[in-house]
């Protein structure tokens, strides 16, 4: 049960395309002008301004990576990106834009998968990339306070020598920022263990749409002094303000981590396996990730790793990556080994085979397969991504029903939809349904929507488990939120941002 293969993280890829519609939310908003740039230049250095309007005319190619999303599906036409270095600079920019009705798109690492991080038209992009200082860390309480523009991986690296970890991990960690994570309420690979950011974020500093700085950057575990305003900004996707600082409770670093990739003969075994894994591993279980056969094969094909011997996994319908994180190596290994033994020796085995990592390189390599799925899919074509919460036992049904539906529409072939795959976070009830097409076309989109959303609603699920609504799902919010909820969301938006400058056209229908 050994293997060894170390995978390198690949750079995120972006390239330009164009927007086709402009929702009502942008009506009345103004474009950035040369006069605005003159104003910004009073308090921002030239290196903080990228604009095709500026006299020194930045090459338009510099704006491309800001105007296009990670999937190359959503495309803005912004003329100007500002990269403030301090909260005060953010405040001055926002105040000016509010007075002049200029729309602002806050941008972190631009790894979002719902088109929330790029403009719909030519809104100003406010990049947090120059705000990347760690403000404080207390190794007794484990509380970390950092600028919103800190890249997730850099926070992890910072905490490592202090024996702590960020209670969040995702495949985009090399590019995404903590402010973006908070603004999307990112879930990731270990939510099962560390819970959601609604629990681990202790405080926020936010620049409100009129430029006021809301300082709620507390470092208290307990604080029941009225409404917990910070919660509104967690998952608001930049529609209520700009997160500039984050106080987060880091978790103690596990003293021992193990992982194992298991091949299962059929999907029906996933849930009994999850139940048994939870029962036997209990407090040391830190991830339980599912991937179907098709997407696993794509990861292997695109060099994201080859964990299991091809002959051993013949006939396997799906795979599960299990991770343990605990305080004592021998104890954890004993528990994991006895789980694996019981699985292999069962009269009706739940698994075909498995690979247990026996070195840090193998541990990373197993994770590289799981974390590399999104990239592998993107190399095969254009992915329609449906990030949904549905009952665990419906995971395979969703994939199969979508496939059948596309087949009936005559769209399941090389030139239209090439693959329909499912993967995700079993512990969180979160399936990533990816429909991989040769190109994004109106015909495929019409076949998928509202089909997928209606299917999710029929299970009383959520149309967005962890990626948010962005520009992609504003019209579909109604499948997961009733009229009253949407009305109150609109009232909250109007209260904070009466001029509608913050990330216009996102989240709300
Ligand atoms: P961006 O993409 O820049 O922005 C996302 C949204 O937040 C936008 O609406 C933007 O306007 C807003 N925003 C950004 N920064 C701020 C700020 N400081 N203040 C206010 N608003 C702001 N997501 C998961 O939940 N789980 C995963 O496991 C996961 N894996 C991924 C793997 C890959 C390979 C990729 C490409 C993406 C993955 N994602 C995942 C999606 C994405 O990485 C997350 O949504 C992430 O939290 C976005 O962070 P970001 O800094 O890139 O934000
Ligand atoms: C993951 O879990 C991310 O890997 C991305 O949330 C999911 O690519 C996707 O659809
Ligand atoms: Zn995910």
From TrEMBL:
One Gene Ontology molecular-function label: FAD binding
Domain FAD-binding PCMH-type: 74-253
Keyword annotations from UniProtKB, A to Z: FAD, Flavoprotein, Oxidoreductase
Catalysis performed (reactions): (R)-lactate + 2 Fe(III)-[cytochrome c] = 2 Fe(II)-[cytochrome c] + pyruvate + 2 H(+)
UniProt key word Oxidoreductase: yes
InterPro entries: FAD-bd_oxidored_4_C, FAD-bd_PCMH, FAD-bd_PCMH-like_sf, FAD-bd_PCMH_sub1, FAD-bd_PCMH_sub2, FAD-linked_Oxase-like_C, FAD-oxidored/transferase_4, Oxid_FAD_bind_N
A Gene Ontology term for the protein's cellular component: mitochondrion
Protein family (similarity comment): Belongs to the FAD-binding oxidoreductase/transferase type 4 family.
Protein name: FAD-binding domain-containing protein
Native organism: Dichomitus squalens
């Amino acid at each position: 049960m050994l293997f060894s293969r170390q995978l390198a993280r690949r750079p995120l890829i972006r390239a330009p395309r164009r927007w086709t519609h402009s929702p009502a939310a942008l009506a009345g908003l103004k474009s950035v002008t040369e006069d605005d740039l003159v104003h910004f230049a009073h308090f921002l250095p030239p290196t903080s301004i990228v604009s095709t309007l500026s006299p020194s005319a930045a090459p338009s190619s510099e704006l491309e990576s800001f105007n296009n999303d990670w999937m190359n599906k959503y495309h803005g036409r912004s003329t100007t990106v500002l990269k403030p270095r301090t909260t005060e600079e953010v405040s001055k920019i926002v105040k000016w834009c509010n007075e002049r009705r200029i729309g602002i798109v806050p941008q972190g690492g631009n790894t979002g998968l719902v088109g929330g991080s790029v403009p719909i038209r030519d809104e100003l992009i406010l990049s947090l990339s120059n705000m990347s200082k760690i403000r404080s860390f207390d190794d007794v309480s484990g509380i970390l306070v950092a600028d919103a523009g800190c890249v997730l991986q850099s926070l992890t690296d910072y905490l490592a020598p202090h024996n702590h970890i960020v209670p969040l991990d995702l495949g985009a960690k090399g590019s995404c920022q903590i402010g973006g994570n908070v603004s999307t309420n990112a879930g990731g690979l270990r939510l099962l263990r560390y819970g959601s950011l609604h629990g681990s974020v202790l405080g926020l500093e936010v620049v409100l749409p009129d430029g006021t700085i809301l300082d709620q950057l507390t470092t208290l575990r307990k604080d029941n002094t009225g409404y917990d305003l910070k919660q509104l900004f967690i998952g608001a996707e930049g529609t209520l303000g700009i997160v500039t600082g984050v106080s987060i409770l880091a978790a103690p670093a596990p003293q021992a981590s193990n992982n194992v990739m298991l091949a299962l003969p059929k999907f029906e075994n996933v849930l009994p396996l999850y139940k048994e894994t939870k029962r036997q591993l209990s407090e040391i279980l830190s991830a339980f990730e599912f991937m179907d056969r098709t997407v696993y094969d794509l990861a292997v094909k695109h060099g994201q790793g080859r964990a299991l011997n091809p002959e051993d996994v013949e006939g396997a319908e799906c795979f599960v990556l299990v991770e343990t994180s605990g305080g004592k190596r021998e104890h954890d290994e004993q528990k994991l080994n006895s789980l694996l033994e019981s699985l292999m020796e069962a009269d009706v085995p739940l698994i075909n085979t498995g690979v247990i990592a026996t070195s840090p390189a193998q541990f990373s390599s197993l994770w590289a397969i799981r974390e590399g799925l999104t990239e592998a899919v993107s190399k095969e074509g254009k992915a329609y991504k449906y990030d949904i919460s549905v009952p665990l036992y419906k995971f395979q049904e969703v994939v199969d029903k979508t496939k059948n539906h596309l087949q009936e529409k005559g769209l399941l072939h090389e030139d239209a939809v090439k693959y329909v795959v499912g993967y995700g976070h079993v512990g969180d009830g979160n399936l990533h349904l990816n429909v991989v097409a040769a190109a994004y076309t109106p015909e495929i989109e019409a076949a998928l929507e509202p089909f997928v959303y209606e299917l999710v609603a029929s299970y009383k699920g959520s149309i967005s488990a962890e990626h948010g609504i962005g520009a992609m799902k504003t019209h579909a919010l109604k499948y997961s939120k009733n009229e009253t909820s949407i009305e109150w969301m609109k009232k909250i938006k109007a209260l904070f941002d009466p001029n509608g400058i913050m990330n216009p056209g996102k989240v709300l229908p």
